[in-house]
Structures are given as C-alpha cells and as structure tokens.
Amino acid sequence: MATIKIKQVRSAIKRPQDQKDTIKALGFSRLNQVLEKEENPQILGMIKKVAHLVQVVD
Q1: How many folded domains does the chain comprise?
Q2: Does 54 score more than 90 pLDDT?
Q3: Are 2 and 36 in contact (CB under 8 A)?
Q4: Surface-to-core class of residue 7, CB atoms within 10 Å of its CB (0-12 exposed, 13-18 middle, 19+ buried)
Q5: What is the CATH number of the domain that holds 10?
Q6: Which residues contact 27 (CB under 8 A, 6 or more apart)?
C-alpha cells in the first residue's frame, strides 16, 4: 500500500479539542515533525480535518 508524508506546520494551541486530538492521533509531538503514514481512508480523513495545520510533503 502507498505511503504519505505529512508535516505539522502550524501549532494546535488555541484550536478545538477535536483538532488537538486528531493531531495527537496522527502521531505528531512537535512542530515541523514529518511523519510517514500508510495512505488509507482513515488517515486521509484525519488529514482533511486538520488540513490547515499540516502539509503533505513530497
């Protein structure tokens, strides 16, 4: 299965609790961290929910 690299580019401070939980569930622990996740509908939905906080990296 394909993988996708995502990077947290904005802080989750002063964001709704559900967005903070989504960032944590994706596995982010600090700003500018790059993670590689398996590309599946669940992960893509989580990325869409916090699209303003993360960036897809090539």
Answers
A1: 1
A2: yes
A3: no
A4: middle
A5: 3.30.1390.20
A6: 35, 37
Do residues 6 and 58 make contact, with C-beta atoms less than 8 angstroms apart? Answer: no
Domain around 28: 3-57
Q: Count helices and strands (H / E) in the chain.
A: 2, 3
Tell me the mean pLDDT in the region 14-21: 98
CB 46 within 8 A of CB 26: yes
Residue 10 pLDDT level (bands cut at 50, 70, 90) = very high
- Number of Cβ within 10 Å of residue 55's Cβ equals 15
pTM of the complete model beyond 0.90: yes
